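Researcher: Go.
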Amino acid sequence: MQRSKRLNRRLLRNRALVTHFHLGLNAYDNGDLPGVQRHRAAVGMLPEGGADSLEFMALDWRALWLEDRQEEALEVARAITRAYPDDPDGVLELAHILSDLERPQEALSVLLDGTVEHGEDADLWYELGIVAEGLEEWDTRKRAFQAVWQLEHDLEPAQRLYLSEERFIETVEDTLERMPPVARRALGNVAIIVEDYPEAWIVDDDVADPRILGLFDGPDIATEHSIDAVLDGPARIYIFRWNIERTCSTEEEAIEQVEITVLHEVGHYLGLDEEALHFIGLG
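Model: Structure:
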């Protein structure tokens, strides 16, 4: 009986640690410095926590960041990667901090080392590709995105979301039906294709990154009757289910993201660039 009571107390303390940690993360996301500080203090006082725990240190750098003590936050993030070398999230957070501090070359170096140690972590490879793209390191970008594709192309989202395949396709079709008649007519023979995940050529040919939500491929409406366009075939719009699911946490978010993605890619066919699409709320 005594052993069971001790076990129960330990389990409750572990639960308290997890609860305070996640509440602290939420406070950080909301820019709530007192909230981060409060939950950091709670983690520090728990037997399973303390100032050397990963949870305390992760909240510590966030509190420092919100206090505009960026260099101190950076040093705590570096300390996490040294103290917890098996935690790829620490590497990712350090790279994000360096990017936010406009030190992308350092972020690139951190991520390159991270992918050596954590080669099965798709998030690290993806961030490496994004940072390399900003630095115009095209070979590194391509290698990173190919690694993401290899790790993810057969891997369904860990939590299958709220839209069945049939509902997903219906949402795409409903979005097209609600478009103004002139826009629907303009689509003509454009193929609308729903796939689970981008095919390898999208990464191998440097068309886009492997986590794109949608893709317009082919001639736009202004050039589709040119000789080159005829040889290339009709325009195609791809919508990628798994990538959309991974960005959403509710059914409503998923439906909204499908709608935005469809309209975004239709906008490309109609000749709108990224800047124009962002301006009208379809970025």
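Model: Residues 95 and 238 are 31 Å apart (CA to CA).
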